[in-house]
Amino acid sequence: MEIRTFVVGPLQSNSYIVSDEASGKAVVIDPGMESEPVLDAIRKDGLQLELVLITHGHFDHVFSSQAFTAATGAAVVMHAADLPLLRDMPETARLFGFKAPPAPEPDRLVRDGDSVAVGALRFAVLETPGHTPGSISLLIEDAVFVGDALFAGSVGRTDLQGGSLPTLLRSIHEKLLTLPDRTAVYSGHGPATSIGVERRSNPFLQAGVR
After folding, report:
1. 65: helix, strand or coil
2. How far apart are the C-alpha atoms of 27 and 83, rounded to whole Å?
3. Distance (Å, rounded) from C-alpha 135 to C-alpha 81?
4. Strand 25-29 to strand 13-19: parallel, antiparallel, or no bridges (unpaired)?
5. Residues 74, 65 contacting (CB under 8 angstroms)
6. How far apart are CA 177 and CA 194, in angstroms?
7. C-alpha 64: how far from chain center
8. Looking at the domain 2-205, which fold is it?
9. CB 104 within 8 A of CB 69
10. Which of 5, 121, 137, 146 has the fewest Cβ atoms nearer than 10 Å?
11. Which of 178, 174, 171, 175 is nearest to 196 (CA)?
């Protein structure tokens, strides 16, 4: 397995390519704004993009999904609870000063306990709502892609549509902090961290579930 991180767009969102080196099959996680370098890397490396995995429906994480599906035929996977956010993406982006294309409807809806497979890659789906109602995290081996649920030293904002701080903290404590300390955490913004580091030092997690 190879993980490549791309920081894209004016909101500095993280987009990820996760590829199975043996088969050349790959997924993209959260294709944000200005994701052309991600698509260029897929083409340059001769990867076969199978899936676009969406951790949550905010426009800075799904902005380029249409471009990826049109260019590669990849299927889109997300949680049903964020479909309203996906469908409202052009209007939401406009409120933030951006013009966004309509996002394609997902090809597959997943929920907690589901598994998503591409080549030898196996992602376990963890429901981690709170930042949005349909936020999911994607666990593969010793790595977890958490979208905007958890950051290095912080947690996702909960003042947007559908956000809930108690729900988010419960998600983190019940679904993420139960993972081994060595688990690498790949967030929707900012640097990678680990479960152990966040368990010990993240100030938002020291008071327990509210």
Report:
1. helix
2. 20
3. 8
4. antiparallel
5. no
6. 10
7. 13
8. Metallo-beta-lactamase; Chain A (3.60.15)
9. yes
10. 5
11. 178
pTM, two decimals, is 0.96
Low-confidence ranges of the chain (pLDDT < 70): 207-210
Contact, 131 vs 34, CB < 8 A? no
Q: What integer pLDDT is reported at residue 209 of this predicted model?
A: 46
User: Which residues make beta-bridge pairs with 74?
Assistant: none
E-strand ranges in the chain read: 2-8, 13-19, 25-29, 48-53, 75-78, 108-109, 115-118, 121-127, 136-140, 143-147, 150-151, 154-155, 184-187, 193-194
> What does the domain layout of the chain look like in residue ranges?
2-205
Backbone angles phi, psi at 71, to 5 degrees: -80, -30
Q: According to the model, what pLDDT value does residue 210 have?
A: 45
User: How many angstroms separate the CA atoms of 31 and 18, rounded?
Assistant: 12
Q: How many CB atoms lie within 10 A of CB 125?
A: 19
The residue with tokens 């949005």 is: 132
